[in-house]
TrEMBL record:
Keyword Flavoprotein among record annotations: no
The protein's name: HAD-IA family hydrolase
Keyword annotations of the record: Hydrolase
InterPro entries recorded: HAD-like_hydrolase_sf, HAD-like_sf, HAD-SF_hydro_IA, HAD_2, HAD_sf
Any single GO BP term: DNA repair
Molecular function per GO: phosphoglycolate phosphatase activity
This protein's GO CC annotations: cytosol
Amino acid sequence: MQPILMFDMDGTLLDLAFDDFIWNQKLPERHAQTHQCSLEQSKSALFEFYQEHKHTILWYSSQYWSEKVGVDVLKLQYDFQDKIQPRLGCIELLENLKAQGYHCWLLTNADSAGLKLKLENVDLAPYFEVVVSSQEIGYSKEFVEFWQILQQKHPFDPQHAFMIDDTAPVLEGAKRFGIANLITITQPSSLKAARNPLELRYPAIQHLTELLPILAQYQSKDVDVKTA
Ligand SMILES: [Mg+2]
């Protein structure tokens, strides 16, 4: 049985360097200009907001951020959209999976506007049967409710599903729901050092095509079980 392959977008298929650049560099700059304060003041004010809302559905809403910090965050992302890039092996992997007939889903915590922006810049959409923003679900992927509602909308067998995501709390949410195969990413942003796979809680890949031998092994085990 072909497993369903569920992919995160930012930091997994796309280079998180863009998001880091927007949120950690450009947003503080624009916030400081807007509010006529120092860059340091902006950074500490934004950092407080970040801590308060991390991993919640609000955290992922550009509209919420725009209202909260007084900067049009979606426009800011459009201003620098030429920096949006796929990660190593992204298209190569997706082409390969498509050729093999895998069912691929794209599950992102980016809001619908952020998802649209990314898909306008990297042509991922044709590779996915299902594309979901957690905004339409009402919970971020860190919450088991996300997976329950997703399954109601798009039935799937969690025992035969893979979730590939760079964020540990998301993988924990998926695990609580019962997704059997969880994979993480060693280097979500090309501008930051790779994480040590031994310190990560889940099997980790660097180049995205490293997923292919993992899938081949999974398929051969599946065959072994059936023929045993
Ligand atoms: Mg991610």
